[in-house]
């Protein structure tokens, strides 16, 4: 199978697995990077790598998409399968909560779960594939030079393709579930960008960490399995009370996910504070800035860390 690696890339000799006696400790290698050029030089190199190897990135994305759908009976149906399962699970949970409280489960509640299920499915799917992207391509990491960032980022972009298909299906269903078409929908692209940036940051960090510490893969699997209960997908943060809602929103994904609900279902602009009937703060514009700080700052930090460590990858792969 062709990998799309340009012919101009020079092949290097395979290095022995494991750390060699000459390999510096990881922390020492990162801390000494400032002497080799500093943050600005590293950022310029990262941007230049993405620009020069954009065709390679495209080939890896195409490869990942083909692998996912090769000999798949359901075809693109898999793109909506996981979000549907999340919606069904969330509907059961909300129905039980409504039954115990003596309330009713309306279409808007199901719609809010559907809107939040899609970004959560994107995050889980992207991290699940990106986490093992370096370890799963050791034959490339150890033998040829290319910016290793393209491997986890390709996994995120391939998952974005799946999410786009799921979004098209969701657009058809949402009007039946109480979605409000208003100017608040203009916040959706910004939320999608923040979601992508935060996911890319986590993908870069975790894929590198899994290369050096192989048990990271199992930790990530457990976190992704139970993380949905610590993210307001099945419920709204206000259901936890004022203090519980504030604690829940410390999760950087929580404001992004709940922002999708407010914009698509409630028709609420994200620059407007929202308080429910019980006086619980549902939304504050500061939450958007909080998630944006995590997304942008996290991506910069993860990119710099990844870039400074990638020359050690072949020795640990």
Main β-sheet, spatial strand arrangement: 1-2
Q: Main sheet, how many strands, which sense, barrel?
A: 2 strands, antiparallel
Provide the helix percentage.
Answer: 55-70%
Total strands: the figure is: 2
Q: Strand portion, in percent?
A: under 5%
Radius of gyration: 21 Å
- Model regions low in confidence, pLDDT < 50 over at least 5 residues: 6-22
- Tally the helices: 13
How far apart are the first and last residues' alpha carbons, in Å?
Answer: 21 Å
Shape: globular
Mean pLDDT, to the nearest integer, reads: 84
Secondary structure class reads: mainly alpha
Please provide the ordered H/E string of secondary-structure elements. HHHHHHHHHHHEEHH
Produce the secondary structure layout.
Layout lengths: L25 H6 L6 H15 L1 H16 L8 H24 L5 H24 L7 H4 L8 H24 L13 H26 L3 H11 L14 H8 L4 H14 L7 E2 L5 E3 L1 H25 L3 H4 L1
Antiparallel strand pairs: 1-2
Helix pairs in contact: 2-12, 3-7, 4-5, 4-7, 5-7, 5-8, 5-11, 7-8, 8-11, 8-12, 11-12
């Amino acid at each position: 199978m062709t990998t799309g690696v340009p012919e101009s890339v020079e092949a290097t000799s395979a290095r022995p697995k494991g750390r060699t006696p000459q390999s510096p400790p990881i922390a020492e290698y990162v801390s000494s990077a400032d002497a080799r050029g500093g943050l600005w030089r590293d950022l310029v190199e990262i941007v230049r790598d993405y620009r020069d190897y954009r065709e390679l990135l495209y080939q890896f994305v195409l490869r990942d998409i083909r692998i996912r759908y090769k000999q798949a009976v359901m075809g693109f149906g898999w793109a909506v399968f996981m979000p549907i399962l999340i919606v069904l699970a969330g509907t059961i949970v909300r129905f039980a909560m409504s039954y115990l409280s003596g309330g009713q489960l309306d279409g808007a509640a199901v719609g809010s779960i559907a809107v939040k299920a899609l970004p959560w499915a994107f995050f889980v799917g992207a991290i699940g594939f990106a986490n093992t992207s370096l370890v799963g391509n050791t034959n490339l990491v150890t033998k040829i030079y290319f910016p290793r960032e393209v491997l986890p980022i390709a996994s995120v972009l391939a998952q974005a393709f799946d999410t786009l298909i799921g979004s098209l299906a969701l657009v058809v269903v949402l009007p039946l579930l109480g979605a409000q078409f208003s100017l608040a929908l203009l916040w959706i692209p910004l939320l999608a960008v923040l979601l992508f940036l935060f996911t890319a940051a986590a993908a870069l960090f975790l894929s590198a960490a899994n290369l050096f510490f192989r048990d990271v893969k199992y930790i990530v699997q457990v976190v992704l399995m139970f993380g949905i209960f610590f993210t307001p997908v099945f419920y709204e943060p206000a259901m936890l009370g004022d203090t519980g809602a504030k604690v829940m929103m410390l999760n950087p994904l929580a404001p992004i996910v709940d922002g999708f609900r407010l914009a698509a279902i409630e028709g609420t602009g994200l620059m407007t504070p929202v308080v429910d009937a019980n006086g619980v703060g549902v939304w504050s514009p500061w939450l958007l800035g909080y998630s944006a700080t995590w997304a942008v700052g996290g991506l910069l930090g993860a990119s710099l860390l990844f870039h400074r460590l990638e020359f050690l990858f072949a020795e640990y792969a």
